[in-house]
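New to this. Comment on this protein:
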Amino acid sequence: DLYNLYNFIILNKRTTILEFGSGWSSLVMSIALYENKIKFNEDIKKLRRNNPFELFIIDNEKKFLKISKNRINNFSKNNKIDTKIHWHHSEIEMTTYMGRICTQYKTLPICNPDFIYIDAPDQFNIKGSINGFNINHHDLMPMICDIMKIEFFLLPGTIIIIDGRGANAVFMRNYLSRNWIYCYLTESDQHIFYLDEYPIGNLNKKQLEFYNK
């Protein structure tokens, strides 16, 4: 899974990543971004990317953020990797989206990623309930709606990868409104979404051309 993740970022020339959850994936993505920075730092200056080669990590568990931060700091010192990382802690609460019960992060980092990786949260640290219903039960599953809420800020060419979480992937497939191409990688249990639309302006056109060079 981590090798697939690394290759998605390298082969698709991703520049700004938003990760839901933290762990070994955070380290792998920081390495991939650093390698892209070495290769494409000059090219990216022609595009309007205000957070080039930066990683935004959001997690509702401070202990996992701390573990991931220490792991990346230790690796970076030994290997001279200087990826800029934004660490963001947020609680998760029960909510509704289009009348459907789900969950959301209370706060999100401010960025416009061209790559989103979802591997969080679990269902056992969620605040509140809706009509007495909460997903703190072993037979239930995570169900975030955050991507739908920011969908229309995302640029054509954006890639989303969901690690497992099939029910959440179904939820997103049914409620994302734009022209997303979807595929499922059986062997790695990864759900892939690609925002396949015409450029929304000249800068976005240049960005898509950069990806496809």
Observations:
- The beta strands are 16-20, 54-59, 84-89, 92-97, 100-105, 115-118, 126-127, 159-163, 180-185, 190-195.
- Helices lie at 2-11, 24-44, 62-79, 146-150, 166-175, 202-212.
